[in-house]
Design goal:
With 480 residues, this protein is of the alpha+beta class. It is 57% helix and 15% strand. Helix 5 runs antiparallel to helix 6 and helix 7 crosses helix 8.
């Protein structure tokens, strides 16, 4: 089976359709010759005997009714049926309908009568023409004993049975051929409707790959192929946007790196020549240090973004990281940037998150750094079980900005590289958290939270109760 699947996988859709059609036709022919033909033979023979019985019963009734007059009824038998009356007293055959019996049929009838095989009504068949060139034929006949002692013999020749059988078989075969043909045409049309858009998609992808000309995909379908086409177009639009953003990003980074490098180089050369570009040696060195710090920060952001792209959740299951400590460390290192901004803390105690400390500290620092860039007077930090919110009273963001906020290289109005929020998104999603930003009545809120299942919530509450009991017990032991 595996080899068959591999073989089919190497064929085109047209070849697969042709193969399936050949298999279906082969199965149909096997069904026709191994099952249908014997069933048709049996059905045709039973039908012939039924015609024999009906014809003979009708004729026997009439003969018995007119037995006293000793006259044979004048009537014509059914098509293909020959009827004669045998009088054992006179040992003679009288033709009622048809052309009469052959000597071979008469001899076989007499043999059955003389041997006592014929009862009140009995069916027989005679294989005739064994030595003939045309082969054998099966002659069906029925013998009925009349009330006056005579015998009514009704014969049906094999030609009529063969004609009936052939018409039945041909009808079945023709119907099946028409059905299979229509099915094949429908399949061909269906496969063609699949192949054409697939070829369009293939050419579209090839144009994107080679970057030859602006690609265009004109597929209007509502099925899965249409969905794939729409997804490819959206992907191509996003790739173009990302390419454009990256090109702008590279230009901005090049410019941002070029300026401090040129400043550091010129200041260092001037100091080397004994000239202080900014009043004193100390102030000139401060300028060099300031630009070196700018360089370090930009390089650090790029390294972190690359590092977070390979971040894996290899921590132990459960929430073990003390987020209160992480937030306090981040505030301590960043609040000096804008001392006039007030930090409002609304933080529960003993709130733990899942993950390592270093990535989460980068997340908190980026959130606070972003808030400091836009805040007017205050920044509020809300920390609860499974949820962290950082809100500032800065201006609202546009709807388009909110939709693209966490994508790499999407830089805000006062942004630097457009990497900080994408780092936040990568870390949070890696550890199983969700991130979103929304405009509030006053300011903007960045929210990180984790959806817990009922089982996870029960497990966490049990662990907290257990820890609380252990702490209480430890307190009692200390007092004792």
């Amino acid at each position: 089976m595996k080899r068959i699947r591999m073989w089919l996988g190497e064929l085109t859709l047209s070849q697969q359709l042709f193969t399936i059609t050949v298999l279906v036709l082969s199965m149909f022919l096997l069904f026709l010759f191994l099952f249908l033909t014997p069933q048709v033979d049996s059905f045709s023979e039973n039908s012939m005997y039924e015609i024999l019985h009906n014809s003979q019963q009708s004729m026997a009734y009439l003969l018995n009714q007119q037995a006293s007059s000793q006259q044979n009824p004048e009537m014509v038998s059914s098509s293909g049926v020959i009827q004669e009356i045998y009088n054992p007293d006179q040992e003679s055959f009288t033709v009622i309908g048809g052309n009469g019996f052959t000597e071979e049929i008469k001899a076989d009838v007499l043999d059955n009568l003389n041997s006592g095989a014929a009862d009140k009504q009995q069916d027989f068949y005679l294989i005739s023409g064994k030595q003939s060139i045309t082969g054998t034929s099966k002659i069906l006949y029925c013998i009925t004993e009349l009330d006056d002692g005579r015998y009514l013999i009704t014969v049906m020749m094999d030609s009529f049975r063969e004609e009936f059988r052939n018409s039945l078989v041909n009808g079945v075969i023709n119907i099946n051929i028409v059905v299979v043909g229509l099915l094949f045409v429908v399949l061909m049309v269906w496969v063609a409707s699949l192949i054409h858009p697939l070829n369009q998609i293939k050419n579209y992808i090839q144009k994107i790959k080679n970057d030859d000309e602006p690609p265009h995909l004109n597929i209007h379908r509502r099925d899965e192929i249409g969905e794939v086409a729409e997804a490819l177009q959206d992907m191509e639009d996003e790739l173009q946007h990302q390419t454009q953003v990256k090109e702008e990003m590279i230009q901005n980074i090049s410019h941002d790196l070029k300026t401090p490098i040129a400043t550091i180089k010129s200041y260092a050369e001037s100091i080397k020549d004994g000239i202080y570009p900014y009043e004193t040696l100390e102030k000139s060195c401060d300028v060099i240090i300031e630009h070196a710090n700018r360089l370090e920060k930009k390089v650090h952001s790029l390294i972190i973004l690359n590092k977070m792209g390979y971040l894996l959740d290899d921590c132990e299951p459960g929430d073990a990281l003390d987020m209160n400590s992480v937030i306090e460390k981040a505030i301590l290192s960043l609040k000096v940037i804008r001392p006039e901004i007030t930090f409002v803390r609304n933080m529960d105690e003993d709130v733990n998150f899942h993950g390592d400390e270093e990535p989460w500290r980068i997340v908190v620092e980026n959130l606070l750094d972003n808030a400091l860039r836009y805040a007017k007077t205050w920044i509020r930090i809300d920390l609860h079980e499974g949820e962290l919110c950082v809100t500032n009273d800065g201006r609202h963001m546009t709807e388009d900005r909110l939709n693209k906020l966490f994508k790499p290289y999407e830089k805000g109005t006062d942004g630097q590289f457009g990497l900080g929020l994408s780092i936040i998104y990568r870390v949070a999603t890696t550890y199983g958290y969700k991130v979103e930003a929304e405009n509030l009545t006053e300011g903007v809120c960045f929210k990180i939270w984790k959806d817990e299942s009922r089982k996870e919530r029960r497990t966490r509450l049990k662990e907290k109760k257990k820890e609380s009991k252990e702490l209480k017990q430890a307190g009692k032991n200390d007092r004792v």
